[in-house]
Amino acid sequence: MGAFHSVPDDHQYHILSEKTGFSLEQIGILHNRFKQLSHNSDVLRRDDLNTIPDLASNPIKSQIVEAFFDGRNLRKDSEGPVQEIGFEEFLIVMSYFRPPSVHMTEEQREGIRRDKLRFLFNMHDTDNDGTITLEEYRHVVEELLSRSGSLGRETAKGIADAAMLEVANMSVGRMVQYLLSSVSWKYSRFIDKERNCCYIGIQSVLRKILVHSAYST
Amino acid sequence: MPSPRRALPAPGAVVDPRRSGYLLVLSVVVLGCCLLPLGAASTPNKTPQPGAPKEQNGSPGHGGSHASNYTKKLFPVLSFDYGHVKPPFVIFLWILLASLMKLGFHLIPRLSSIVPESCLLIVVGLLMGGIFKLVGETPPILKSDLFFLYLLPPIILDAGYFLPIRPFTENLGTILIFAVVGTLWNSFFIGGLLYGVCQIEGTLSTVGLLPCLLFGAIISAVDPVAVLAVFEEIHINELLHILVFGESLLNDAVTVVLYHLFEEYAGAGAVTVTDVFLGIVSFLVVALGGVMVGAIYGVLSAFTSRFTAHTRVIEPLFVFVYSYLAYLSAEVFHLSGIMALIACGAVMRPYVEANISHKSHTTIKYFLKMWSSVSETLIFIFLGVSTVAGDHKWNWTFVVTTIILCMVARVLGVISLTYLINKFRIVKLTTKDQFIIAYGGLRGAIAFSLGYLLDTDHFPMRKMFLTAIITVIFFTVFVQGMTIRPLVDLLAVKKKQETKRSINEEIHTQFLDHLLTGIEDICGHYGHHHWKDKLNRFNKKYVKKCLIAGERSKEPQLIAFYHKMEMKQAIELVESGGGVKVPSAMPSTVSMQNIQPKKPPPERALPQISKGREEEIRKILRNNLQKTRQRLQSYNRHTLVVDPYEDGWNEILLKRKKMIELEKKISQMSNYLTVPAPPPDSPTIARARLASDPQAWSIKPAANADTVPSIKVDLASPQSPDSVSTLDEFSRRQQQQQEEEEGGLMMKPPSAAREEQEDGKEQQRLQRCLSDPGPAGTEEEEDEPFLP
């Protein structure tokens, strides 16, 4: 839980900076945002995130919110969902969206990539068993189409089935190749340094998700 | 029909194409010679005159006898009257020549892989020009209005209509910086240094600063035609392609402004600060005005296409006419016509494609490709001819300096701009990328035409300019064009990926978009994703309703993409002989049926393609085939037909064959109960069938069975025999699954019988999906049946 005092402390900022890789300035800005969201308390709850007005029209809102409260993303030993998070956990989740810095070694980049993929994987794998099943995948597609009403729900099944079949029909090598297609560079995004401070970079995301889903025993 | 750029001859027929190629070239040369007597160049014979016959007497065709003349001659059975058909005749003879050249090049096997087509065409043009000169005729020159009004628009429209929007908008910042800042830097660098050189060199000291700057502006613009012609053949990766190509398109505004600015004031001799300021304002007006004009026409075109349900035949016409009018309207105000055309094409495309019929879509695609192809060929040929035809003034210093300065300016510009841009990009541009971008800055016919437009009175050194421009064009097209391919291979630049679009990719793309937008919202930051999301929602809520007819306006992108995929598979199916059932990896056109549940599906015995099936395939193809790729993996203008999956399809076809056999066996078991109680069944068949597919998804029993949504599947209702058979196969299957390690379906042991059945239903629905597309009601009338 939030082991974070309401008065920001430079020392604590430094610790957090070590842990998450954000700069001090970025942590400060995020902390302001955290306080704004949590109405100046030390912990953030689901409702706080659910009430963000911009988020309301997002079809996968619930999954995004869940991701913040998912034990697996918070680098804790507990695997289940938590009810409230503190600023440190908030930062940890945010840090999944940082791009690798230029001064990293190849292993570090690999590690970061794996973390990002793991994050995405966890978003899909809602029952914490390490596999993405057809059901869960269907659920994802349904959520994406949830804005289309009943039309979406029924087609979602078909689409998810098609997707799984695609995965199944290809050998692993080919799947990796075609899934990695252009998503890798397209989904790196930059959020303005001045305005906020979140660098969002997700690269080569699809590989592990579907490897886990289709071929785990 | 798809016409791959490199048609390799059949292995057994190596000699024949070459021979026929040579024959063809020879015949073309002869044809070209025919042009000489026919094309006396007294008139500007490329501008199509409104085919009014020269003779104004009322008699038809054969300029017959004068009515007032009563001397009775023999009635002329056959007469020769070439004069009044000459202009269109010559034009079309040239077009024929150009097309035959294209044919010839691709028949000669080796040539097209070494030399890019543009080079060959220029050489042909040179030859033609030479032949003209030998005969003593004046060869035609690439006149500017011919070029700008007739030859350029088809190419630009083709590029704009099929512009891959997503990579373009994602890299828009980079593209704009290269286009605007890069072109400005090039112009001033080249112009300024050239002026310096001219001052130093004695013979050139009459060349003023402003003419030099004007020359710099003309020569510095990267040419879209040349870039397209060369880049297409090297199949470079999407990012680089869109960067160079986008730059070549967007720098038109800069070129127009600079050109007019310097041309206006070259006479005056000096440019004041006010003029510079006005120039900047003018740039904004030209660029944004062009885009706005294009967008307005695009919206008009989309709106018109909404009502064309009953007159499908003229649908393509609207697209072409509106686009061309957009171009011309922009040119009226000296706005950037190219940007107008691009904006028009890009704006109208999603809406028009949702509205028009499949055939119109094909027509548009083919016509655009055809016109742009012919245009490009003609441009290059005329460039060659004009080189021979024009009178040149060769000045070693000027020309050599120009070439060197062009290259230096380009390299410096790209390096410094990339350094700047990389601070803002997450995917940085590597050195290799920079090299390709710099090396791919080809000049082309636009520069020549702009130079040609110069007024000789104000610019006495026009000839020298033209000579230099042509030399630069030749240099870039020949040297850079020919060497870029081996360089790309040498540097191992990433090529385009031949991957096919997959539904997974689409799902995850959308998922990531929403995820990143959500994270931005949580951060409270209004970034790229936020605005894009807002635009999408606005589009969906208001614009689509206006511009798209009927129900299609509500279709989400994922579903549209999915239908398109199904379409491809349906076509594959039909092409490969239909098959008894439709067993393929064509999952769940059950969904199709659910979207349009207007007509109850006809009852039919499964093993035959009935009317209903035909209808449904027809309807599917009708409705959905018209959507083209929204995101191209690689941008290749000449790919007309989306390639069906290559290797994957062979597997699928094999599987399908196996499944056909198995289905036959299964259908023999159709005398089971119609109640979903599972009587035992032969497990071997089940295992054989299911094991033949390496489908390894896991079906977990739902935690609570009622959350498993149920689809109404009319065809595969639980009462139908087939469903039962697969169901029981399934229950047996579970016991066997422990033995199977790989292949087949994996199922965790179900916790309750009911769940088992539910899963079975799920599974059999899935299998159903595999084996049988649902029917769908007919939605719209079509004037002619697709499957005759």
From TrEMBL, chain A:
<dbReference type="InterPro" id="IPR018247">
    <property type="entry name" value="EF_Hand_1_Ca_BS"/>
</dbReference>
<dbReference type="GO" id="GO:0032587">
    <property type="term" value="C:ruffle membrane"/>
</dbReference>
<dbReference type="Pfam" id="PF00036">
    <property type="entry name" value="EF-hand_1"/>
</dbReference>
<keyword id="KW-0106">Calcium</keyword>
<dbReference type="InterPro" id="IPR002048">
    <property type="entry name" value="EF_hand_dom"/>
</dbReference>
<dbReference type="GO" id="GO:0030027">
    <property type="term" value="C:lamellipodium"/>
</dbReference>
<keyword id="KW-0479">Metal-binding</keyword>
<keyword id="KW-0472">Membrane</keyword>
<dbReference type="GO" id="GO:0004860">
    <property type="term" value="F:protein kinase inhibitor activity"/>
</dbReference>
<keyword id="KW-0449">Lipoprotein</keyword>
<keyword id="KW-0649">Protein kinase inhibitor</keyword>
<keyword id="KW-0539">Nucleus</keyword>
<comment type="similarity">
    <text>Belongs to the calcineurin regulatory subunit family. CHP subfamily.</text>
</comment>
<dbReference type="GO" id="GO:0005737">
    <property type="term" value="C:cytoplasm"/>
</dbReference>
<keyword id="KW-0966">Cell projection</keyword>
<dbReference type="GO" id="GO:0005634">
    <property type="term" value="C:nucleus"/>
</dbReference>
<dbReference type="InterPro" id="IPR052490">
    <property type="entry name" value="CHP3"/>
</dbReference>
<keyword id="KW-0519">Myristate</keyword>
<keyword id="KW-1003">Cell membrane</keyword>
<dbReference type="InterPro" id="IPR011992">
    <property type="entry name" value="EF-hand-dom_pair"/>
</dbReference>
<keyword id="KW-0963">Cytoplasm</keyword>
<dbReference type="GO" id="GO:0005509">
    <property type="term" value="F:calcium ion binding"/>
</dbReference>
<dbReference type="GO" id="GO:0030154">
    <property type="term" value="P:cell differentiation"/>
</dbReference>
<protein>
    <recommendedName>
        <fullName>Calcineurin B homologous protein 3</fullName>
    </recommendedName>
</protein>
<feature type="domain" description="EF-hand">
    <location>
        <begin position="112"/>
        <end position="147"/>
    </location>
</feature>
<keyword id="KW-0221">Differentiation</keyword>
